[in-house]
Structure formats: C-alpha cells, structure tokens
Amino acid sequence: MRIRQHGLLPCRRADCPLARRASVAGARPGTATSIAGKARDKGLTVRGYVSMCFGDPWEGPVDAPAVTECTRALLDAGCDQVSLGDTIGTATPGHVLDLIDRHATDGIGAQSLALHLHDTYGQALANVLAGLLSGVTCFDSSTGGIGGCPFAQSATGNLATEDLVWMLDGLGINTGIDLDAVTRAGAQITRLLGRETQSKAGTAILGAALKAGSL
C-alpha cells in the first residue's frame, strides 16, 4: 500500500479544455510531456495530477469524460500513474466509484490511478474505502490533516495520515508506517504551525498516551 508519492501537477482544472491542452501537449519546457520525458530519461517514476475531478469552486460538478480525457493525456505524455484530486472535498463514495468505473470503461485500469482527497465534508476516509473497493491502492494524505489549496479557498486540509493508517491497519492492510511515530510527528508539526490537528485518530492516540503517562 502506497500512501504518498511525489509527482507533478500539470493540469489544474479537469473542466478547462484550454488549460488541459496547454499544460500537457508539446515538448516545450513545463509541459507534462517535457517533464515526464526528462524524468523517465533519468529512470524516475512519474506521477501526474488532475485537480478538481469531482467539483470546481467556480463551475460546480465536473463531467467524468473531461477527467478521463485528462488522465489519458497524462498517461500518453509519459506518466506512470495519475492521481485524481478531490481538491475542494466535495466527492462522496458514489462519485469515486462512478469516476473510477468510467476510467475502466475508457480502458484505464485502477492500477494507473491514485486518489488525492480533502476532508472538507468529512468524506475522505469513506472515499478511500470506495477507492480500495475499486482497486486503487495509492492515496495521498498529510500528517495532522494540514494543507489546503491556494487556488480553491473553500478547500480544507488533506486527509490526515493518522486517520488513514488507523483505518488501513483495521482492514489488515500493511502500510509499513509506524502510526505512533506519525502521530507524534503530526502533533509537533501542528504545534509549530500554531494549528490544531485535524486527525481524530491522532487526537485519540495522543489522549490515551497522556492518560497512560507515556507521552
């Protein structure tokens, strides 16, 4: 199970055809084709990102064909995997199941996909489970649920790593991640940022440790 990878973000809006074409096509510097080509020449794995796959703060719901078009373009540009972003956190499990199914119909398997989820409406963990049921095994998360989006002000933080690992551990999925260590790191990061952790699992784990005198 992979929870985080580095990649590139060449396509900001799934519903903006002009932006899609400009950011993906061609060999000029800065396009997905150019960046992916240089990365692959160095033996690197390339992961592309499509933002606002489920909802756009300016225009509302996004049509699935626009998303799959972006995904196909990024794969054709040389990306090994494409992450579908719920940038403003409006997706539900039904949306996730439908979009991954649409990709499968268009010949793009779940092994080529990842999910980048925000927890604005409290659906991120449920959306991970929907992704798992559809065959997706790679998810983005952030310690303490920190984050947001500079071009979508309505977006709250990313799915908290602590919550994600707690759920995956409960499902018997081995992530190789030390949950206690991540929780302590999250507590330190949020303290330094002057923010409260957004992780329910992290809060509970820290509370239990304090009660037991082990923190």
TrEMBL record:
Pfam families: HMGL-like. The keyword Metal-binding applies. It comes from the Bacteria. Keywords: Lyase, Metal-binding. Residues 1-183 form the Pyruvate carboxyltransferase domain. InterPro entries: Aldolase_TIM, HMGL, PYR_CT. Belongs to the HMG-CoA lyase family. This is Pyruvate carboxyltransferase domain-containing protein. It comes from Sinomonas cellulolyticus.
